[in-house]
Structure formats: C-alpha cells, structure tokens
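Sample entry (189 residues):
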Amino acid sequence: MPEAETLQFTVAGKNLQVTPALREHAERKVKKLLKFFDGDRHAIMADLVLSCQRDRQQAEITLRVGGLIVRGVGNTDDMYVSIDQAVDRIERQIRKFKTRIQQRLQERPRPAAAAEEPASSPEAQEESDQPRVVRVKRFAIKPMTVDEAVLQMELLGHDFFVFTNAATDEVNVLYRRQAGDYGLIEPEF
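Predicted structure, serialized as tokens:
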C-alpha cells in the first residue's frame, strides 16, 4: 500500500461546516481506494468538496494519481451517504478500467494533469436573453493517445475531453455521440 506521505487529502465545505467526524469518515473511505494503487510510486492527491444546497448534500471527490484524474459525485439527503456514494462511483470506475489504468501509470512519468480552476464570479451584468459564459476552466493540455483520452474522459465522467494528440501534436476534442460511440474533432488548417 502507498506510504501515508504519498496521500495528500484536502476537504472543503460550501455552505457547510466540515466537522472532524465528517472529515475522518471521508478520509477513511478515500483511503480504501488506495488498494488499487498498491506499490505505485506516484503521489496521490484527493480533493473532497462537501456542499449543501437546500435539503441535498453533495460530496465531490477528485482523485489525482500520476496524471490520471478520477472523479465521483454523491448527492443524497445525508452527507455520510453522499461520501459513500462518491467513493463507490470512483471504485466502480477504477475496477472497470483497472488494466488500462495500470498500464498508464506504469508508463514514463508525465507532467501534472489538468489542473482545473473555477472562474471568479463575473461582475454584475445587465439581464439579457443572450447566453453567457458562467464558468471558465483552465487546464494543462498534455500529449496523449486517443485511447488514453477516451480512458481519461470516462474516468472523469464527461461527455467531451480536450487533449493534445500525441500522434499529430495538435489539439483534439473527443466527444461522446448519442449512440454511445465516440467522435474526434481534429483541426484542419
């Protein structure tokens, strides 16, 4: 099992006070996921955001391991159950893609992956019927194969993924089609 110092664990609360008991429960549950990374030399970072909106309790866990990002979200009326649900979703994703994840982590080390930054809230704007940008994400685009991009997109649970194609060294967009297959957008100059 990875050494204790290779796990960096952060917990943040939105509209919610994070109690020591809640933090301990979350940490204990996330540590159970470390069994999947047995003997791995990569630092493991776990970010947990607990939020409360009306009567719903949401736990969002983001696990970063050697360039891979795995995210799970739980949304119930009990925060402890939400944490359990988010951890279970991450565990299912890891089990589903275990072989591909192990191969990816055993490859040569790569720069840190997609660091997402939520945009600061925009200044008050006039009400209009026009759509507006309400969130901006910034992340490092790293070279990867299309198969690696599919894996990363699945681990994040997103419908699209932006990456640098290692074969062409160009920015590509991978997306999920309605039929469940994938589409790839390649730039043409």
